[in-house]
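re: the backbone from monday

yeah here it is again, tokenized this time
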């Protein structure tokens, strides 16, 4: 599935890491920007209190093993560009995530807390993934896709980056550098355009070749006329 990773202009080294190393950084879930991240409420009627406490402790341990990378299934949201791409001066990187990976899931939006019922069998690993795969409904504009990764800080991408979208407020030198890099690596390069129907990704032509070297080469190849002493 396609997903978009937004980066602010100040985070360009992180963007280059994705582009050149084909990987996504996965953060500790407690460092994410929602203060209610990972919080959950639970209820029980027939279960024993000691069993519930052990299960809760196991869920907490399982959560500590999971790192998170947050992406979006769309690039055409004003709030995403404002919040995560420094007000259209950053970029969105389109990546391809595996459809069949158990680590990749679309976020489930719910109330303030994730809710668990402790009556009956509870799988702590599955419960931890369900908690971190959900988020408060006020964040639903993000249309978030999450990578819940247990194998270290980086989630490897199976295919290279194919498309980068620059914000239309990006600083010109950075824009030109990205255009050059994308052209050399065969990555489609676009820039946001805003119209009545929303945000578009407008194609950007490859950078022009430097005319000066060609003129210099032409001067060298032109025979000189004989001059009188």
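seq for it, each position gets an aa:
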């Amino acid at each position: 599935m396609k997903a978009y990773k937004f980066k602010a202009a100040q985070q360009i080294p992180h963007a280059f890491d994705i582009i050149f190393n084909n990987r996504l950084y996965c953060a500790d879930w407690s460092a994410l920007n929602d203060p209610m991240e990972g919080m959950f409420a639970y209820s029980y009627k027939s279960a024993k209190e000691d069993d519930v406490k052990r299960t809760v402790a196991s869920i907490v341990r399982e959560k500590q093993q999971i790192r998170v990378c947050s992406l979006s299934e769309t690039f055409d949201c004003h709030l995403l560009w404002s919040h995560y791409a420094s007000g259209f001066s950053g970029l969105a990187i389109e990546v391809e995530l595996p459809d069949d990976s158990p680590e990749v899931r679309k976020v489930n939006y719910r109330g303030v807390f994730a809710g668990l019922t402790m009556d009956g069998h509870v799988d702590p690993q599955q419960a931890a993934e369900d908690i971190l795969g959900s988020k408060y409904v006020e964040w639903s504009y993000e249309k978030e896709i999450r990578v819940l990764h247990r194998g270290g800080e980086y989630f490897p991408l199976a295919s290279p980056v194919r498309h980068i979208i620059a914000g239309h407020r990006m600083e010109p030198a950075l824009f030109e550098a990205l255009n050059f890099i994308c052209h050399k690596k065969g990555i489609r390069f676009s820039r946001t355009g805003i119209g009545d129907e929303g945000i578009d990704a407008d194609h950007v032509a490859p950078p022009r070749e430097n005319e000066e070297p060609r003129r210099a080469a032409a001067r060298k190849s032109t025979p000189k006329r004989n001059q009188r002493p």
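The two ends are 75 Å apart (CA to CA). The chain has a mean pLDDT of 91.
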